[in-house]
Amino acid sequence: MQTDDVEALIEAGVPDATAEVTTPxxxxxxxxxxxxxxxxxxxxxxxxxxxxxxxxxLDGHMTNDIHAIEITAYTPEEYEE
Length: 81
Hints:
- The protein is α+β, with helices and mostly antiparallel strands.
- Helix content is 35%, strand content 23%.
- It has a three-stranded mixed beta sheet with strand order 1-2-3.
- Helix 1 (3-13) crosses helix 2 (47-58).
C-alpha cells in the first residue's frame, strides 16, 4: 500500500478531512506510516476518539496492509496554530 492510497482511505472515511501521509522510518518499508489529518469533525473529540475515527476509515487495511500508523489529528483551528 502506498502513501496516497492511505491518504485516500482517510479522506474518504473521515468527513471533510485532508490527510498527508508519509513513511517516516524507512521509505522502503511500506507498512509503517505517519499521518497528519485535519478535519472539523475532530472538534470536541478526545485524542482516542480522533484516532478511532482514523482506524475506522482504514478498516480492514490495519494489520493486513498497514502494520503501524502514527496519527496526528487536528481541527482546522488547531492546525493553524
